């Protein structure tokens, strides 16, 4: 039996008639309900999801926050959004405000304290920033006058420690594909998320990056990637959107389109509860696509 609708006019009619009408749910609503279960899939090891596109303005940080918030919201925590920008990233600026300003460089300088068996997730409280959607944010360094850079060794040290406390690490990246920490993140990624807006130059840069990674031996990462196309403007060029989606479908595993939401596009701090329902639904489907890709990669490794 097809489930009764809860969304839109169908749901209103079911409520007004106390279920007597029993109008069925749309395909989109049924997929959303299935997605709420799919996103809970368990994994035998911590998962690194890297969000990357070398073009500025591709939506890396909003997509990172959106995915981490969705995973945290539905899975109940153990999720980290990590700004792995080689310079000054904006993840900390877009997340909810924190009571401290410590960041990834501060954590790396204190990393030895987390390498012993007595260290717990509670000790990370002085470095990460809790969010209302049940995930944490690890911001990049933005201390004026400081010139510290996270290299490949530093990234791997951080990933080793953070993987002891988080099931999912959604890792934001910078724009330099030759930066040591960029390559460290992509080379060890379990899943790649490629964000783009509905702009030809942004989309082409993401495709170039996929070709770049394939040439460097990460064809598995490219084939299992998820592209997320954000409608960053209320007026969408639907012809261009269709062309971008079709082009990415030729290269990656899945493509998900995020609708325009003024709360996300304004550049302000992002609170998951304040996002519009259409965007939150699309973010769940993006998270499901990522979980499915991770599951497929895990099965392939075990084969």
TrEMBL record:
It comes from the Bacteria. InterPro entries: P-loop_NTPase, ParA/MinD_ATPase. Keywords: Cell projection, Cilium, Flagellum. The keyword Ligase does not apply. Gene3D superfamilies: P-loop containing nucleotide triphosphate hydrolases. GO terms for biological process: negative regulation of cell division. The keyword Lyase does not apply. GO terms for molecular function: ATP binding; ATP hydrolysis activity. One of its GO terms (cellular component) is cytosol. This is MinD-like ATPase involved in chromosome partitioning or flagellar assembly. It comes from Micromonospora nigra. The lineage of its organism: Bacteria, Bacillati, Actinomycetota, Actinomycetes, Micromonosporales.
